[in-house]
Amino acid sequence: GAGVSQSPSNKVTEKGKDVELRCDPISGHTALYWYRQSLGQGLEFLIYFQGNSAPDKSGLPSDRFSAERTGGSVSTLTIQRTQQEDSAVYLCASSLSGQSYEQYFGPGTRLTVT
Amino acid sequence: EDKVVQSPLSLVVHEGDTVTLNCSYEVTNFRSLLWYKQEKKAPTFLFMLTSSGIEKKSGRLSSILDKKELFSILNITATQTGDSAVYLCAVGGSNFGNEKLTFGTGTRLTIIP
Lengths: 114, 113
Fold this sequence. Notes:
The complex is a heterodimer. By secondary structure, chain A is mostly beta strands.
């Protein structure tokens, strides 16, 4: 079956511009996660959606970052006024429920801020 | 603050060797420990461990968890060049009812033919 998909696969943007990254989770998965992986670093948790509950935004690094999940499915991560330190691979993962840690990852979006 | 530490940071071995990767952790309300293999961008799931002392095995890969000493190991026997990847350890914890994974920085494994 279809896995987690993300778009775009690569995004180059100028400093100060806004970007939107999209994640389409596996159908039926209620939990969705966004992570960031900077060069040579581990995965950094950003935000977690579980069903209709309020999202856990505790990992968002600044108020320039926001995310939403419409209809309990597709999610969009928005970065406003991008900075060079935002350059990273942004990975989305989904799992069957918030109690399941077997997360399935998408291919990621490589964001480069110039 | 939850913390996951992996060692070594990188490892280079010859094909056919056996390797052991280490993961130690400190996490609030531990629930499970997971191993992922990351070759390009998307990590792929290997194992999830919740109980101490029970080895999980998949082909040449195996893993075990020690909840008393707060660590896990991932063993790969008879390594092949296709095993070259970054191996990520992640620990699931529960904080105020929210479940999240904390990842280590990974061990970069390189297998020389």
